[in-house]
Design goal:
The protein is α+β, with helices and mostly antiparallel strands. Helix content is 34%, strand content 21%. Helix 1 crosses helix 9, helix 6 (236-246) packs across helix 7 and helix 6 crosses helix 10 (427-445).
């Protein structure tokens, strides 16, 4: 496996990170166990299998030598490459812990620890259950190494093999040379003008969204560097029942549940929800289907004002549905949520020097992240032990106190909550509010 330059968005995630702002995403899988030794056996399996997965051997190395990439200088200068680690040892990445009384308490502490940047930036933490009949595995992947879909593929590669249908052949992306063909200059000019128009649209949309921002101080904080996690399981049939009665998509319902839960949480802790409509970023994958693409992030996003201030649960769902429809009509390449696409037009050295400032700007761009991570419908197993729940965890942006990720798996919806542990000591209260909001929406829709 050869090295390749990090794509601009990957490089941005790599440079935004600091000791108090780790930029890794995670997933906590909970498994049934037939003995107290099941966790130790799982750790041995993960270690043995990880050695054979090429994507897990890749480290990220900073590029300061232009001679190493002569065709891309000066674009590569100050960038980074993804390359095989000659000293890779899977046992450095797999950790077996002492039995845990509560998986989320352990996961929160582990999510606050940055990944070691000198070796492949991923870890798997095996947490035996104190009851002896369960264990959990917390996977952590740096956002510069993989987005949610890629992280899922890497984690699945060290689980038990699944009987999957043969994938269809994917045509490779066209090869682009380092220098443009003069005959293609008119097309390049049109592309540059299109990019400029997109940048202006995105900038204007960000400015408009900032003028109308109505967030809550509970969603912002001075970072402590610590993390707390929580998980919520919801019956997917209840979500479908709400969708069929009120309209919209499953994703619309799941976002509206977050809006209602935030309202309950803010009111219960005394912050109040009146006038609160935080700018919420909904990441959108821009990967082209059935096309071979390199690893890394292919992301844009939608930005919407979450209707936390509306007291009517069905009206909140209607507002979410309308906002998402507007975003889909505009597409993921324009609008305030598409700021990530502008990373492609920043030189590597600009990402290097401006990374810390870009991280601080996240607070000006949006107030809350709500992301969806798809999971396979087939049952996941490790050492023959089935997964009973999978809680996805998103990175916490600088200045933010909370991030929400959600996955559906085998008839259930799993919400994964990540928060600054100091700013949000009552994350369990928000978790209960998610369950209560589903019950409220179900009742509002009637039988």
């Amino acid at each position: 496996m050869t090295s390749d330059l990090l794509a601009p968005l990957d490089l941005a995630f790599w440079n935004i990170e600091s000791g108090r702002h780790p930029m890794h995403l995670g997933a906590l899988g909970v498994f049934t166990a037939d003995s107290p030794a099941a966790g130790a056996h799982a750790a041995d399996l993960l270690t043995a299998r990880a050695a054979g997965v090429p994507g897990l051997r890749m480290r990220i190395r900073d590029v300061w030598d232009p001679l190493g990439h002569p065709l891309t200088f000066p674009a590569a200068f100050g960038g980074a490459t993804r390359e095989p680690d000659p000293g890779f040892d899977a046992s450095d990445h797999i950790r077996l812990h002492a039995p845990a009384a509560d998986f989320h308490t352990a996961a929160g502490e582990l999510m606050g620890r940055p990944l070691e940047r000198g070796r492949p930036p991923w870890e798997a933490h095996v947490l035996p259950g104190g009851d002896g009949v369960s264990f959990a595995v917390l996977f952590k992947f740096h956002h510069a190494l993989a987005d949610g879909l890629r992280a899922l593929a890497l984690a699945a590669a060290i689980m038990d093999p699944m009987d999957l249908p043969a994938p269809r052949a994917r045509p490779p992306e066209p090869v682009r040379g380092p220098l443009p063909d003069v005959r293609g200059l008119p097309g390049l000019l049109r592309g540059a003008l299109s990019d400029l128009g997109r940048a202006l649209d995105i900038g204007a949309s960000v400015a408009r969204s900032s003028l109308s921002a109505r967030s809550s101080s509970a969603l912002a904080c001075e970072p402590s560097g610590s993390r707390r996690t929580a998980g919520v399981v919801v019956d997917l049939d209840d979500v479908h029942r709400i969708r069929k009665a009120a309209g919209g998509t499953v994703n619309d319902v799941l976002i509206a549940v977050v809006a209602g839960a935030l309202r309950r949480w803010l009111d219960a802790r005394g912050d109040g929800s009146d006038g609160v409509a935080p700018r919420t970023l909904i990441p959108v994958s821009t990967r082209r289907p059935r096309t071979a693409q390199p690893p890394g992030n292919r992301l844009s996003g939608y930005l919407m004002e979450l209707p936390v201030d509306d007291p009517d649960p069905l009206a909140r769902l209607g507002a979410v549905r309308a906002a998402m429809d507007r975003n889909k009509d505009a597409g993921p390449h324009r609008g305030a949520g598409a700021v990530a696409l502008l990373a492609d037009h920043v030189p590597a050295l600009g990402h290097r020097l401006g990374g810390p400032l870009a991280g601080l700007a996240a607070r000006l761009w949006f107030d809350l992240l709500v992301t969806s991570v798809p999971l396979p419908s087939l049952g996941l197993r490790l050492g023959g032990h089935p997964v009973t729940a999978v809680f996805p965890f998103a990175p916490l942006a600088p200045g933010h106190s909370l991030a929400v990720a959600v996955s559906t798996y085998r008839g259930q919806v799993h919400y994964g909550l990540v928060a600054d542990a100091v700013a949000v000591p009552d994350l369990a209260l928000l978790a209960r509010a998610l369950t209560e909001e589903v019950e409220t929406l179900t009742a509002a829709c009637g039988p």
